[in-house]
Amino acid sequence: MVSMLAPVPHFHRAVATVLLLGLAGSSYAWQAPGLPVHQIPVQGVAPQENSPENESDSGAAEPLSEPAAPAEPTSEARLREREDLDLLFVELAQPEGETWARAETDILRIWSRSGSAAMDLLYKRGEAALDAGDTVTAIGHLTALTDHAPDFAAGWYLRSVALYLDADFGPALADLEQVLRLEPRHFNALTQLGTILEELGDDGKALAAYRRSLQIHPHQQDAQDAVRRLEQKLQGMDA
């Protein structure tokens, strides 16, 4: 596990770039506060339609043989998917009603599809390892995934969670940078960005990240709680 007190390569660049992608802010001067790392749930994992029951628990990556599957999405199919996402985000942002929950589920399901059965298998293996608390194995599977499918935002996001749980904040922020480049509306990535910045003691930028996430998905209870907590804290400091 990487010590929070050790300088992390590319940490400053990652934070600055992430903030420019989703927020307004300048470069970030890191001062490790020595706070304990609190484990966070894997936010927004899409429901698995066919979860494998007999996956290997071994930490070694198994050879991937891609099963018979539909052809990778065509450009027309990807365009339809993007249009579907646009409509779902409109529905997700509605402040009232219950249809937002269905929209959230549909968004997460679309995000979880890489277009390749082999890459989807790597994703599921990484997710299963993370659920079991085995961050080393999870990072191994998810690194293979991001190497082979660099345009698949869900792989970067899930690896950022694993890296965060290992207190490897610099690489976690670099992965969030990739997520937000690929999908600037990734509310889970923005909420996780707020979590990391709050953990590091940068309450102002953490608050900005949470607020941006809530602009996209206003129904996130954890982000709502974080905004209230930080607003009260910062107002108390200004008093």
From TrEMBL:
<feature type="compositionally biased region" description="Low complexity">
    <location>
        <begin position="60"/>
        <end position="74"/>
    </location>
</feature>
<dbReference type="Pfam" id="PF13432">
    <property type="entry name" value="TPR_16"/>
</dbReference>
<dbReference type="InterPro" id="IPR011990">
    <property type="entry name" value="TPR-like_helical_dom_sf"/>
</dbReference>
<dbReference type="InterPro" id="IPR019734">
    <property type="entry name" value="TPR_rpt"/>
</dbReference>
<feature type="region of interest" description="Disordered">
    <location>
        <begin position="44"/>
        <end position="77"/>
    </location>
</feature>
<keyword id="KW-0732">Signal</keyword>
<feature type="repeat" description="TPR">
    <location>
        <begin position="187"/>
        <end position="220"/>
    </location>
</feature>
<feature type="signal peptide">
    <location>
        <begin position="1"/>
        <end position="31"/>
    </location>
</feature>
<protein>
    <recommendedName>
        <fullName>Tetratricopeptide repeat protein</fullName>
    </recommendedName>
</protein>
<keyword id="KW-0802">TPR repeat</keyword>
